[in-house]
Amino acid sequence: MARIEIRDLRKEFDAFTAVEGSSFTIEDGEFFMLLGPSGCGKTTTLRMIAGLEAPTSGEILLGGEDVTNLPASKRDIAFVFQMFALYPHMSVRANIAYPLISQGMKRREAGARVEEVARILGIGAILDRGVGGLSGGDRQRVALGRAIVRQPKAFMMDEPLGALDAEFREHMAGELRALHDRMGATTVYVTHDQLEAMQMGDKIVVMNHGVVEQYGRPQEIYDRPATLFVADFIGSPPMNTLRFQGAVAPGDAIARLGEVCVAMPALRAGATGALVLGVRPEHVTLDDAAPLRAQVSAVEYLGTTQMITLDTAHGAVKARVAADMAVREGARTGLRLDAATLSLFDAATGRALPSALHEGAHRG
Amino acid sequence: MRGRIVAEVRLEGVTKRFGADVALDAVSLTVPDGAFVVLLGPTGAGKTTTLRVVAGLERADAGSVHIAGRDVSRETPAQRDVAMVFQQYSLYPHLTVRENLAFPLRSPLRPRSEAEIARAVENVAALLRIPHKLDNKATALSGGEMQRVAIGRALVRRPAVYLMDEPLSSLDAKLRADLRVELKRIQAELGATMLYVTHDQTEAMTMATHVGVLEGGRLAQFGPPRAIYADPDSVAVAARLGAPRINLAPVDLFGAAPHPAGAVTMGLRPEHIALGGDAVAATPARVTRVEHLGDQTRLHLRVNGHDLVTLTAPHTRAKAGDALTVAARAPLFFDGAGRRIRS
Q: Is the ipTM of this complex over 0.85?
């Protein structure tokens, strides 16, 4: 069993704080994503879990055991890096067998394990080839094979697909997730790609400047971003943010954007000053009769849907609508926002105000 | 600035070989004046070679290239009056943005007054929304700004034709989405004739007035994005556009549903798959995986031994292992060679 608990984990490099008091739990068998822009502390967090970096303070529990001060070699974790670190002069078979042989396993037993791993990864046919002439995908499969052959308690992966082109990355992402579903081993995966995180992860930690911004299931984070950073980082295009000045009180279920009243989930807290109304593009509908006025500035056809960009008094808004709807650039229209899905942020703190939206949590 | 120039680009039967490899195989296509044509295709399809033949950086082995009605096949790149933007922004790092933009105008072949140059640079900077960056060094810019300046350097000369080779591919996803909209706006404002190469289907669908799909050195299909998506001529073209990718399945996947004679393969986009029990002759399916992407949810299904991927509402209750039913709704049909059969 490999439940991983992170408690108040902190890492300082001289005056620079890379990770600030992070706490979260990775359940046994989860595919867990550490997501954020470069420099957010996600790789440092992963390296601390793996034992490659010693935390400044805090605790790491692996399967209930405190491993905070154990070296990497004692943690029974396998690491897969972005760059395929293979031995170029060895065959695929020898590369995969290497971790077992170096642990002193008998060749016969190691050979059987390699065959099994090759079957899981679908690389049985290339076992006796040198790794030099392999395609990027096969090299990545061999690197994975070397990680899973040891049957460790958990896998740490640092942007393992980062070096692949987009089309192939999507294919490998699917393959990696299917492999995880067959093996069920706890996996911690670092990425800066929000779509990769949404697509593959059971849970996501979103980090920024060393701080955990939010932690939860992908759909939960998408639907109820805890901060403006998450609202902007998750989703392509990101959540629309309509900026306005105002005051709201607990119980309010209306946001007043100038003259326009927009219905929203009932608030559980108040705020005054600069406020931000957040709405996802698929929750914006074009409606001539709606009081929130807008002008179409761009239309982008996407096949099943199209993306409409509109200018409003509160900033640009994108709307995802059906592909067969006729929309003309320059046209003036109104916008209807799906009340039940709206978030309201306090611009000063960047945090979402608690509302009825957050009480229907843990669906989906 | 000069007025707008009529600048249709026409390729007639262009063939280009590199040794034994045929990079382009009798490609004929017309970029209408003021059109934004995007060439789409996988690596090695001949996209960049087409662009380089139009630019005059490669000479065709057969066929001809015409710009504004003039046969330019024998002309040098400079004589053709085209500007090219590459994937890697090639700016002069020691020069300011203003000097980088002015550089193409300081050609000894066509001297311009300093006032004329300053005016052209200011105009382009306004168009690109970077007037406040004009006096920054090129190296002090972000990646997106650098690529804007690189595009600006192509715009400032007001050539007859703009050629762009994956100019956005080195940028991150958010910036790429912004610059897509920008580039389309700029092209529309200038009425520029543009030939643009990419392997990114989103760029092709969102920016193009016409998409040319290249496969193995041949032009597989040419037309407006909506026509290419909704009415593809072949399996290869159908698979090039659409996310998730079109499902290809044997024509009898759903049993003896009616299909045109000669049809072997059925193409099913999400809009061609009806979920739920009320459809006539619905087929049982099992959910193998549910992917929540936020705005949409991908449902992976197993149907009669085949895998299908479709879209469903973000908050579906479906989970792996669930049983449901599926039916086809006006799918696309293809013959054994992958050619479309229209009924």
A: no
